[in-house]
Amino acid sequence: MLGSSADVPGLKQLIAERLAPMGVNVLVLEVDYSFQFQSHPEVSGGDLTKADARGIAAVCREHGVRLIPLLNCLGHQSWKKDTGALLRAHPELEEIPEISMDDPAFYCQSWCPLHPDVNPIIFDLMDELLDAFEADALHVGMDEVFIIGSGNCPRCKGKSTAELFAKAVSDYHGHLVGERGVEMLMWADRLLDAGATGYGMWEAAANGTAPAIDLVSKDIILCDWHYEVLDRYPSLELFQEKGFRVWPCPWRSPEAVQRLIAASKDGATERMLGMCGTGWAAGGGGSDLAKVLAGEVKPDEETGMKDAIGTAEVLKAALEAFAD
Question: I want to staple 263 with a disulfide (CB 3.0 to 4.6 A). Which of 60, 166, 233, 317 is the partner?
Fold first, then answer.
């Protein structure tokens, strides 16, 4: 996750001195509203510039790393009650939840996939990120969408959540793949049925969106994240059977990394793409992670770098697993 212009030097160092030499060849960079958008400056929530993006892209090219920006779409429009820049500027676009934001069960806001004004804004933001990062793909997020088809939404009330989710996916695919000619990636959890797969409500859907798996384009790369140590990961086989390319995504636990990679190798087809190690909010745009990978911070120290330490362990475990 890249939050500010001040984080850019640390990120460049991480790419050049640590990630690329380790063998990392793709970097998905969550930008969201941290960028200074020119098309819609009212939704700019940070100070990242086009020059920052171009600088990161240049370092990635120099070191053979494919750079893919990420813009969280549909869900994750807030962090708990902390509303993101889009809905702060355009509250009319919100899918009004059926529970209060003060309710302990509330997670994150969503935008309404049927609001006529939302896609023109989002497509402009997508275009700016693709141009600034000189990218040939965009990750659209779309994980953990719990607010969809709300009874408080005059457009979505009573409609199939699977069809609503599939429409959103297809809209973004139409713009990115159909109009811009780039690849589209997304988190895969809302395309999985929690009951049928045995996954929980975070890693799979319990709100009816799973049938969208048969309503969206098969050329979307599905980022299949699972963070727990499980006996099996049925989604890996399911997505390949459905015709999707799948990119398994572990986090934090070396044992879970090894188990997920072993499962991905078992019965893998040409649609299995490797492994995407996820890491969240690593400080300084990656400078914390660079320090951990350089051995400057020991895993048992109370450093405030828990996420960076966990991310480093994921990367090391993954490389060991692929080397076997």
Answer: 233
**pLDDT tens readout for residues 128-166:** 999 999 999 999 999 999 999 999 999 999 999 999 999
Sequence length of the chain is: 324
For the packed helices 306-323 and 254-265, what is the interaxial angle rounded to 10 degrees?
Answer: 30
Q: Which DSSP state fits 64?
A: T
**Partners of residue 185 on adjacent β-strands:** 139, 221
The CA distance from 188 to 244, in Å, is 11
d(CA 85, CA 77): 8
For 107, the token pair is 């997670």
DSSP state for residue 193 in the 8-state scheme:
B
Domains of the chain listed by start with CATH number: 5-323 (3.20.20.80)
Which residues of the chain, if any, have pLDDT below 50?
none
Give this prediction's pTM.
0.96
**194 CB-contact burial (10 Å; exposed 0-12 / middle 13-18 / buried 19+):** middle
76: three-class secondary structure by DSSP: coil
Q: Which two tokens stand for residue 87?
A: 């809905």
Name the helix (H) or strand (E) containing 247: strand 245-249
Residue 269: count of CB within 10 angstroms of its CB: 10
